[in-house]
Amino acid sequence: MENVVIQNRQNSEAEVLRKQAQRRKTILNVVYYLSGTLLAVVFLFPLVYMLATSTKSESAYASDAGTLMMFLPDFNNLSAAAENYKKVFVSYGVWQYAINSIVYAGVIIVLNIIVNGLAGYVMAKFDFPGKGFFSFIILFLIVVPVETSIIPLYSIVKVLLGMKGTISVLAVILPATISIFNIFLFIQFFEGIPKEYEEAARIDGAGNLRIFFSMILPLSKPIVATVATFCFIGAWNDYLWPTMVLPYAEEGAWPLYPIQSALTSIQSIQGITTGEFMASLVVTSIPIFIVYVVAQKYIVQGFGSAGLKM
Amino acid sequence: MLGSTLAILGVLIAIFAGFAVKDVLLAKRKGTRYTFRNCLVSYGMMLPAVALAFIFVLLPIIYSLGYAFTDFYLLKPNNIKFNGFENFENIIESIRMKGDMYNAIRNTSVFVVGVVPLQIGMALGLALFVNRSKKAVGIFKVCYFAPVVISLTITSYLWLQILSPSEFGLLNSVLKLFGAEPKDFLRDPDTAMLWIVVISAWQGCGYQMLIFLSGLTNIRKELYEAAALDGATAWKQFLHITCPGLRSTFLFIVITVFVGACRVMIQPMLMTGYQSHTVTLSYYMYVQGYSYRWVGYSSAVALLMTIVIGSITLLQRRLLREKD
């Protein structure tokens, strides 16, 4: 009888302790999620603000200032949103800039993969006199930090291409097609492809280019996708270089600026409203968000290889 | 310019020929031979990359060394004269007179000293915060990473709007609730650079958070379990397990953030324009070389920057590696 009482008392004490631990855990959890959400607000509020403001007319923007409505779209006047985006796309010509950006990025991705892929293929699979020289140059260019050759590059491009009219498009594309780091990535990956595949293809009578395009590249999908993703992000987000080398759009002619560079001239358009400018920022960032969502896997792989740089 | 390009090309081809001849001789001694066809194919497939790398990567590097000692003015590309150390004397003169070079050095230093610890600290804090198996951690990660996705251009223009001097700007309209007058944060010499530091850290730290996270997952879980059994507090665990485990990640992040911070340019360029209280070294170099077309002087600034950044990077590597 006494034993049972003691047992019960011990049980209830354990129960109390367990409940206390439980409560502490709940409190900690609440604190964790609260602070996590608070941090999320700190990181997201400018983006939410951008999105919300892009739906507003100038008067709604002014009247919402200083209230929580700054972070919400203008539900009373949804046509203002449509008007802002329509004006940005049609009147300010953002659709033209967007097409430019897509074309630049597309051409750069394709050329970058072909040029650097071919070089990586040769360096990984062929033996030829003078190979050591190229290995040395690649290593040198990866290790030595060269942060500041944009002005000499500009002077070379200017003398080389003259930079008049449409030909200056080449100045945007050509320097972006070569990337020593991508050659390095390709070499690393191609070295892992067994020689037997290639030999089999060669016995079947395939030429070198054929082997590269219809065997090596398809076998290297992960690295090709990673390079393509980073090329796209780089090309889409580049602002300074295109602004430097491309001429201003002439009246009536198709503009040459990509969308990022165009933002500067869009911002200074006479009478542009805050909502419209925010809409152009939203339009500019959406493709990158899509790429990050779709190509998440390859971006993480790219982070892994960024560590190789050291 | 054509003459010097050909000279550089000649030197490079000579070095390459040296390598090639050595290879051929070695092959002969070993009794193997390169087939002519094979060589042709290899060189042919290398050619696009080699040509582009020569023109757009190697040549600018070599030229930026050479231009630094000339009076190259972009509108007179056929009349370049060597002028010894005159560009460097001008730089020193500008520093002594507290001209824009002085401002650029000061502002860049302020930015680097501010942003490197802030951004890395935020990244490490966030990484530790999300490095646990709880629900919603994935969502948190995405939220903290979101600013990395948007470009520097959009970041700059967006914050320009948030910090707008009008009473409708986000910050000013909030401050107005507390009865403050509207301020022009980016024109105020005392606060402009600080805002640029905060915005850059806000935008960039998600990236380093992910790199820290991959470093954290590489630390073995058993170490923490063993330490917990021995009664080590969370702080002690952090100090003696997490910190040593993150050393190489940390080194990588310090160097990349540092080098990136030294190059800061787009943010001041788009948010304040050329102002003495926000001009940075890269921006100064750009304005001298591109807007004023003094490529020679600009290259001298670039050369100094490369030397300083390179040697500080080496020093960081040494300091952080030596403790192993």
Describe this structure in words.
The complex is a heterodimer of chains A (310) and B (324). By secondary structure, chain A is an all-alpha fold. Chain A has 2 domains: 2-83; 87-309, MetI-like fold. Helices cover 76% and strands 0% of the residues of chain A. Chain A contains 15 helices and no strands. Chain A has helices at residues 2-53, 58-64, 78-91, 94-125, 131-143, 150-161, 168-177, 180-191, 195-203, 208-219, 221-237, 240-245, 259-267, 274-294, 296-306. The radius of gyration of chain A is 28 Å and the shape is flat. The mean pLDDT of chain A is 88. Helices cover 75% and strands 0% of the residues of chain B. The two termini of chain B are 49 Å apart. Chain B has 324 residues and is mostly helical. Chain B contains 14 helices and no strands. The model of chain B has no long low-confidence stretch (mean pLDDT 89). Chain B has helices at residues 2-30, 36-67, 86-96, 100-130, 137-149, 152-162, 170-177, 192-217, 221-229, 234-245, 247-262, 266-271, 281-291, 295-322. In chain B, α2 (36-67) crosses α14, α4 packs parallel to α8 (192-217) and α4 runs antiparallel to α11. Chain B has 2 domains: 2-67, no CATH class; 90-322, MetI-like fold (Orthogonal Bundle), CATH 1.10.3720. Classes of the chains: A mainly alpha (310), B mainly alpha (324). At the A-B interface, α1, α4, α5, α6 and α7 of A face α1, α2, α4, α5 and α6 of B.
| Proportion in helices of chain A | over 70%
Helix and strand pattern of chain A: HHHHHHHHHHHHHHH
Query: What is the CATH H-level superfamily of the largest domain in chain A?
Result: MetI-like
Q: Approximately how much helix is present in the residues of chain B?
A: over 70%
Count of β-strands of chain B: 0
CATH topology of the largest domain in chain A: MetI-like fold
Number of strands of chain A: 0
The CATH architecture classification of the largest domain in chain A is Orthogonal Bundle
Q: Hey, roughly how much beta strand do the residues of chain B contain?
A: under 5%
Query: What is the general shape of chain B?
Result: globular
Largest sheet of chain B: none
Report the radius of gyration of chain A as a whole number of Å: 28 Å
The chain-level mean pLDDT of chain A equals: 88
Largest interface: A-B, 89 and 96 residues
